Amino acid sequence: MVLSVESPTAAPGAPTPDDERLPRVAVLLLCHESPAQVAVTLRSPFFASADLKVYIHYDARRSEAEREALAALVPPEVQHAFIAERVACAWGDYTLVEATHRMLKAAIGDESFDPDYLLLSSASCVPIRPLSSLQEFLRRRDGIDFIQAVDVSRRSWVKGGLEKERYEFRFPFNFRTQRWAFESFTALQRRLGRRRQPPGGLRIHFGSQWFCLTRATAGSVAARLAEPALREFFAASWIPDEFAIQSLVMAAQRPERVAGHNLTYYEFDDQGRPLVLENGHFEHLLRQPFFFARKLSAHATRLADQIHEHVASPELDWSYFAHVGSPSGHYAKYLARALTVNISRSRVATQPEAWHGVMGLNERPYVLLYAASRRLAAAVARQMRRHDASLPAFDFVFDPLRLVPAQEAAAWRGIQCGMRARRDHDAAGFAHELIHLDPLHRTVMCVDPATPSWLRDFALWDEHATLVCCDPRGLGKLQRAEAALRDISAMEEAALFEQTVRAAGVPGWLPQDHFDQAQRESKHRCRILAVDAIAPGEADPTLQAVREAWQAVDARAYFAASEADARLRLFGDTSE
Amino acid sequence: MIRTDRTAERRIERNRQQLRPRTVRAEAIASAWSLLVCCARNEMPRMPAFLDHYRRLGVGHFLVVDNQSEDGLQDYLAQQPDCSSWLADGSYKASNFGMDWCNVLLAQYGVGKWCVTVDPDELLVYPHCEERDLHSLTARLEAIGQPSLFTVLLDAYGEGPLSQTTLTPGADPFAVCPWFDRFNLTQRFDAGTQSFWVQGGVRMRRFFADNPEQAPALNKVPLVRWASGLRYVSSMHHLNDTSLNCTVNGRADAVSGVLFHFKYVSLLREKASEEMVRGEHYAGSTEYKAYFEAGDVRLYDPEISLRYAGSSQLQRLGFMQAGTWF
């Protein structure tokens, strides 16, 4: 997307309409909030202009005393008029359209003001641009009506639930207070197949209730809303504020003169809940190519202050004019990440099932080193640390008998020998912490293939694990068995010692072949590779570091020179 | 669903008798949109910063149970227009570590309100808390149908030894104890409470390294939309309605928080000596025994300690989540 920076001081030669008078805007304000809350909205410098007048419909559910309190709170510099005959508005029924209709009539009939545009807003909508920007925008889009209007015969607008039924059926019962009657009567009409047709062949268009209409279009809408047949039709329908005015605008105006969107920023989440604007959303709001935004939290006083201050001075950059009507997409991206990316979730108390515990959340790759000779794997890790102390390369941190963060120290990168009990208390949590220890470098750990440990068993089935075999190529089984036995304590690990000796003498796998066997039998989900299979130009810096460390270690030295030599050392003879 | 426990209810009824109103501003409590309930004993050095923190978050009224303080707490609270206080002269231990008294006050005044129940050394932090107060948080929780806030207790400490980490009245605990362990958390799901048993932090690292299973629980539910019949069962770890114990479990859109715990200051050594004699704490005060035996420890470890840098840091580290609260 190329952003062309438009400046209010237009470039020489830029076309300007002949009519230099900036449009006058009537803001129709639907409000039901407390007087103090409505006053917060009206405090915006946006409203304090000779080119703007606010027509306030204060819900009849608010008392006359409250209306008077509100009247006293409206800043004196704001031109305004209260709708004298107030309606008690209820969500879902015709009262919202009725209140809007009354404001339309009041603004159109107001000879003292003479508006060019009529804009529907509410006390929970807040102006996010100066009036001068809105005026300039309307001047450039001369004669366009801004309202969302989707032809329901061509495309669906409602996500789930009733759509055409909203006007085809009658809704004498309130959805919230008379739910059972509402549902039953709807079902009954569906069964009877009685469907109303809009009077005069009116084509129904759906859309959000907010609008900014030219005076001509608004006048036509107001006149038609007074027609008894139309009025009766809309009054018996459900949520008519989402199609009554929209349809009448489309009937009055040529389609190319209707923008198909309004000038108010609002968003919903995947559950249909509106985004509530809170403190901290200021920068986000400025990125939105709109003139109003909803819905402002009653507690976001700092945000209100910031945004009011912003609209007090003219804007220098009008490049957003080109995108009016399309949200920036930041909120959608945030939602998608929060709902699908594991690391956006807390690692505490969110992974109940399964033995893998919090590792179920992990999406970070890690590398495990293994070899028949434990000392060889540890030597590679040590060489990595020596070469670059910032690499989180650990020794056998999951050895059941002891926790060795690094052979040369009792503690390395905060991991201490003494954390063994904690490790075993919640091994998955410990692994998660190790893998997320360093924000820049991947964690490397040694793991003994012959010794069952939480890490050994988990990593085999973890797609985020890469297992690197550090044994040099071409070793015989006896060479590997003999090297393994050098590091196995005949006292502490008697069973493994015996098992290894026995396996060395008969055909089959050694205990040290755990991963190789899994690879051969395709029983793994991790990546398993030999260290010499890492290419010299390996792009992965961790694997590259493993390769370099391994080359610096004399891997052959950890094994007997030959199979015969190993046999001699193991069994005291060289015969087959 | 609320589980009834007649024995506990009878005990709470008994312990209700020990509560004597001292300065109770009934009208202010009734009109407050939210309440904070806590039980204190000789906590004067913490009180000003404690009240400040929660006032900033928008708490409407403070209900404080004073368990035999001798440091002028009563007089101080009497001067605060948004505080009410009760005297409780019974045993802390026999009243389920103060919980019975809190439960009585919550049942009497809290129903239908958002209630914070914490210890005086616990300060609540949650996503966006620097900019959005409890009004905004609870409005969000109501919008997504989340009736309580799960938190993990995060032990904070200073850089020097305990004896040099002094909390004077009015001092900002976050400035005196800015450090916490960036890892060392263990957790296990517990089917009985439908919650996680979380342990760890500096406590496990320093005092329970060899017997982690005995380390104190760090899972707490300090913010609840109080309902009739509701009751905290053991400290603020669980409620008798298990569906409130871990509302972040299995919900990607849920919000959770962190309770900063400012226990590791010089006061602890005096408290530990006192508690060795009193034995009024959990599990025969083994925790205090460990503190007493550890002496003048330094908890800071350059490899493990992180300096607190705001709520977004705790989200990045995975201690809490904002869910879909943009």
Mean pLDDT score of chain A: 93
Query: What is the quaternary state of this protein?
Result: heterodimer
Q: Characterize the main sheet of chain A.
A: 6 strands, mixed
- Stated plainly, the CATH topology of the largest domain in chain A is called Spore Coat Polysaccharide Biosynthesis Protein SpsA, Chain A
Description:
The complex is a heterodimer of chains A (576) and B (326). Chain A is an alpha/beta fold. Chain A folds into two domains: 279 residues, Spore Coat Polysaccharide Biosynthesis Protein SpsA, Chain A (Alpha-Beta Complex), CATH 3.90.550; 213 residues, no CATH class. Chain A contains 21 helices and 17 strands. In chain A, the strands form five sheets. Chain A has a six-stranded mixed sheet with strand order 3-2-1-4-9-6. In chain A, strands 15-12-16-17 form a four-stranded parallel sheet, sandwiched between helices. In chain A, strands 5-11-10 form a three-stranded mixed sheet, covered by helices on one side. In chain A, helix 3 packs across helix 7, helix 7 crosses helix 9 and helix 17 runs antiparallel to helix 18. The longest helix of chain A has 14 residues. The N terminus of chain A is likely disordered. Chain B has a single domain, classed as Spore Coat Polysaccharide Biosynthesis Protein SpsA, Chain A (Alpha-Beta Complex), CATH 3.90.550. In chain B, strands 1, 2, 3, 4, 5, 6, 7, 8, 11, 12 and 13 form an eleven-stranded mixed sheet that branches. The mean pLDDT of chain B is 92. Chain B has eleven helices and 13 strands. The radius of gyration of chain B is 19 Å and the shape is globular. In chain B, 30% of the residues lie in helices and 23% in strands. Chain B starts with 5 loop residues before the first helix and ends in a 10-residue tail after the last helix. In chain B, helix 1 packs across helix 5. The chains are: A alpha/beta (576), B alpha/beta (326). Chains A and B meet through helix 12, helix 14 and helix 15 of A and helix 6, strand 9 and strand 10 of B.
